[in-house]
Amino acid sequence: MKRKLELNTKSHRHRMEPKLSIIASLILLLLFLNQSQLIIAKSPSRKTQPTKHGEVYRAKSQIDSLIYKLTLDLNTSNEKKNLANVMQKDAEKLSRIAEDEIALLKPVQRLLDQLVKGNASGGNQSCFCGIRGGKTAINIATKSSPLPKHYTITVQVNHRALIDRGLTRDNGDDLQVYYHANGQQPVQIDRVLSGVGTKSATVHFRLQARMSANTIDDISYSLMLGDAVSGSVMDNPRRVYAFYDDFTSPALKKDWVKNNYGKWTVQNGRLLGDTMAIKGRDYIEVALYLKSGFSWRDIEVELDMMETGSRKSCPGPLLRVANVQHSKTTAWWFEYCPYNTFTCTLRPQRNNKDGGWKYNSKLSRAFALHTWFHFKYQVLGDRFSQWQDGKLVHNNVKVSNDWNIPGGTFGLGCHTSPNNCKTIYDNIKIRFLVAGPPNITLGNFEPIRLSQTSILGTKNLPADSCKQIHDASLANNKPRVKNGVYWIKTDLQGSSLVQTYCDMANGGWTLVGKISGKVGNIYKTWLVSNHNTAALKTPKITKHKDFGCMDARSLAVEAASTILLSSGERTDGLGSKWVMWRLPGNREKEKFWNHAIGKSAVQEAVVTPVLVHAWNGNKKICYQNEFGIMPYSLHGGSYPYTSLKHGGGILAVNDYCMAVGVNTKGSLAHGWRNNGYANDCPSSDSDWPNKSYKHGSPYLTVWLK
Asked: What pLDDT was estimated at residue 93?
């Protein structure tokens, strides 16, 4: 018993320490705001206005939430006195700490209330609200060459300086490109960022419309950064270049066409070409090509290549492929042979006529078997250039008129000698070129305060939680926002968003999950990833054998203190029947509801009592651990959960300690087995509290606040 008391005391001490550090940080923040003239003053000469500074709302929300948590701590601590005499001193200590912390935070809360209402006193201090985001125009000036749609623009950015100024995060996710089409609202487009965190980072994106020659566009595209961005970054390279394939898909994409020569498959995230030598063929055949590129003219191609055949295998890509028929092959073939070590060539083919080793050059590194090489090619007009591993091999070489091919697609092939090729390709990237590249510059930085132009909970300004929206809208202690669907971050950095239902009438509950009936093994998905999130737009359960959820771990750990399981009969908020309890104080985002942590780790965790409140006014002391997962080995690792006893092995019907099963009867996962008793929860809207724990059909909604 003494050891248990020590463990519990240690657990409580660790739980209080983060709160003390939060308090200290918030007080320091307020002192900084006061000293650096960030507090909005009440001027005697003008009417005060509520602050529009988002940080104040967030700080107030955090303070309110912390006071709420501490009040729950205080209430729970008082209730713990009745649990066991052995815990009485510990509970009294927690009560004193909670009372002291609440007293310390109350003045801060009052000050933040004044700030929100615009009534904070501060002499004649001015408002210099901290700028943490903004935009800069991307100026595109074309020269003698028009730019085709989907031409890739490259912009150099001093990302290091932006980070040092506090305008963007160091991972680059909040450095985004927006397109303004004909006066419409700007929309984010895909971009690729390289050189993250350096002074010479580059941003690549492609034009959304054609640009004429000798024109300037300084309004259609802009870089948005920091708090000015909306939502997760769009960074799909397939929508940045004319073509891109890194072969992450297990099968060849539909863009590729096999040309009846060899076997071409995707293996281990790479393209493998086995051309299987066929006698009687020509010198080269196009084995695989892109069907969309026959209209291409001037392009740049980058790829990684490795030959694994024999020393006499001669692979290589083909550019300007104008005819893929075996009897009429027309293309520029870049040929490499291990037996020629440092020599390579552009070997033109025109109407099946072979130009031979006409445009030879020396490689910077011998073309050896089982060795990766990175090649880059540029074809522009009647000239071509080539680089191997960043070093120039062919420098703007002119092709004679008899071998010139005006345009064509991209392909892959091999010499048709008896020595077949076994070539591996990866990271094939193609972009358009023009004879006169445009001049790209950045305009002046324009700070943006989205809190002044956007509504919290919209896609442009997603919220950390529904409670944050609720608290930010309070006027005379009443929320101005209504129950409905809002945009919520599923990680608090804002890189992932979902639309979900918020119950504002009851204080700002966030709907994070719905489940109805037997849905199989969901322990890899349930509440830890975004799945069928469209179902979260209404709290009413409308389908059987279905579930939907968001990745609720960040919200549960960083922006909420309480969980509620509810019936799902209503369309306008929480169900009429529910149970609610405080989340464990020592939870961590990486471990909470993480089934893969495994049975052993969960069973070693300290179990603490928690008071569960029910819709009918009843209360029940149940138990939980820091992982939020049922520890008992035969209940499948159910979550969310509270249990009737410490270990979770003893269940009861018609009580308020509930658990949601995450796998099917008989299944085994991460050390747990499901004996069929995993769902100690309702099986319908009328089954409250549940009459059985053997049904295997959970039927409820999950909310956080």
From this structure: 52
Instruction: Give the three-class secondary structure for 54.
Output: helix
Token digits of residue 157? 């950015």
**Is the pLDDT assigned to residue 185 strictly greater than 60?**
yes
- 571: its two tokens: 């369309």
Say which amino acid occupies 626. Answer: E
Cα 81 to chain center, whole Å?
44
Dmax over Cα atoms in the chain, in whole Å?
99
Q: Does domain 133-240 have CATH number 3.40.1000?
A: no
Question: Which is the CATH superfamily of the domain at 244-432?
Answer: Exo-inulinase; domain 1 (2.60.120.560)
Angle at 63 between CA 129 and CA 509, to 5 degrees: 105
If pLDDT is split at 50, 70 and 90, which confidence band does 495 have? low
Q: Write the single-letter amino acid at 216.
A: I
Do 133-240 and 244-432 fold alike per CATH?
no
Residue among 201, 270, 103 nearest 442 (CA): 201
Task: Identify which of 685, 661, 687 has the alpha carbon closest to the alpha carbon of residue 674.
Answer: 661
Model confidence at 115, pLDDT cuts 50, 70, 90, reads: low
CA-wise closest residue to 514 among 484, 538, 490: 538
List the end-to-end C-alpha distance of the chain, in Å, as a whole number.
35
Domain borders along the chain are: 133-240, 244-432, 466-704
CA distance 187 to 175: 14
Per DSSP, the residues of 303-369 read EEEEE-S-TT--EEEEEEEEE--TTS-EEEEEEE-GGGTTEEEEEEEETTEE--S-EEEE-SS---T
